[in-house]
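Hi C.,

You asked whether I'd gotten around to modeling the 646-residue construct. I have! Everything is below, sequence then structure, no commentary in between.
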Amino acid sequence: MPLGERQGDKSESRYCGVETDFNDDMPHVLAFNLSSGGFDFVIAPLMDPAYRPSLVQKGSAGSGVLPFAGSDLVMSPSQWSSHVVGKISSWIDLDSEDETIRMDSETTLKQEIAWASHLSLQACLLPAPKGTSCGNYARCVNQILQGLSNMQLWLRIPLVKPDDDSADGKNDTLVDSWETWNSFRLLCEHHSLLSVALDILGTLPSANSLGRWFGESVRAAIINTEAFLTNARGYPCLSKRHQRLVTGFFNHSIQIIISGKSVHPQANVAADASQNHSDEGLQRHALRPYLDYVGYLYQKMDPLPEQERFELGYRDFLQSPLQPLMDNLEAQTYETFEKDAMKYIQYQRAVSKALLDRVPDEEAFTKTTVLMVVGAGRGPLVRASLQAAEETGRKLKVFAVEKNPNAVVTLHALVKLEGWEDSVTIVSSDMRHWNAPEKADILVSELLGSFGDNELSPECLDGAQRFLKEDGISIPSSYTSFLQPVTASKLHNDIKAHKDLVHFETAYVVKIHNVARLAPTQPVFTFTHPKLSDKESNQRYKKLQFVIPNDTGSAMVHGFAGYFDATLYKDVHLGIEPSTATPNMFSWFAIFFPLRTPICLSPGSNLDVHFWRCCGPTKVWYEWSVTSPTSSPIHNTNGRSYWVGL
């Protein structure tokens, strides 16, 4: 039974599981935990924990039946696949120095995974690595992964990290568990079917340290009953920090699993009855109060905002950026962008302020301002400009310049429908080649991409600047791109699946969600309009140094998230840079620049990044590289993989 109803949420995090002990009566395990307990699935051992291959082979020459938890026939295939996650025997230790244990572990692991595949389970929970070395364990798991088609393997990782980051050696015994996970997944080459199940303990690392995990492939969070506190009524509850963490898990489609024995008086009232198999109707599951509390945390979350619900299908989905200069946009694309009311409200505000500055009140009825919308599309900026003129009581003459002949058809129909014939002139031409009959007071454009200049706004406006008056106003007047390093395991795996260089040297528009932002954004390239000098090049180069906070611990950089912030006019701005983003705007998602080989950062280390904007006769492209802590290749040399056509 799902944890509750939350408007717009259809993610897997609505379902809560429970970890169980070995029991060869699987139908009872399922009935008790799902029907009586109210859980949605069980993490159940597949094999008798007493089983050791070496002992069986000595006694029966290998002919014994493996002690699995019941035949596949005791439950329907849908029950096995929908409600059971296989728990691999926790005793296995593939890096033991004892050869018998090591060999027994490898044999058992492969037998249990084979059985889980036979049952069509969706996932298996692998025990946490026993020591600091996990080379042989990872090798064996990697072999298994090569033969799997869709069953996930969840590696159990306790959520621990030394708190004291000083070099006094006090925490030598405590290993940052992210390091264990990172070592394991690197050995398995970032395999897409290998994920994490985090063991949540009573104490938590710092917020920065926790944040790393939201960019990793975390499928489940196992909360032990020992991690719960007790409220005034004797019921289990969690600390404020644990509550925030669980809410974060819900928002990232991470499933909660309750583990352990009940340790709360109120929860123990009916615990003894749970051993009585004779009357299931009277049984009360000892862990039900914990499930109820997790359900309470889920239900008190705010509903997903309408914009978030609209964007759900785009989360972490890689899209190639638009090429509006090289390609003509389709009607559906125009329609999507035209629905972004907030963007046009900001444009209208900017035009209103520019008109008031340009035309004093005493000239309002006599002076006509010439405004040119370059890249008019189907007319939303024309409408916003005319509304600004009406709002301020200023007279306006509008030229709507558009190169897409299909959009021009729509523009003509709009002008006729609205009765704008006297104030709007439609020009079917590329702004870079049009000879204007007069110069403009105000030049308005919406040529910005997710990275500001990545849809060639600088090149387009350079071509249009010749018909702007010396003291003319450009809206936008400037824009700046921003970058930050991110952990983005899913994006990396999606790009890796293409198995070529081109996809790792392409920038993608993406609604980034399952990412860890490892450092604050930094500005990269700024463009100002009108340009002060014709000699100023649109080529750019910037070296950035990001400092990863010391309490984050080690982290993996899969690439860089890019944003922009634009000044439309004076104090009217528009942008998606996280700290200053315009609210309720959906025209732009972030841009993602991947790294061919992810880079591992040590605690408190610096990340030196180089970014270039390069211009050729027919195209513009970006190149990027990392030089510290290690050097990466320069990506996209000469725009060999990704470019924007002029």
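If it helps when you're writing up: The radius of gyration is 30 Å.

Thanks,
B.
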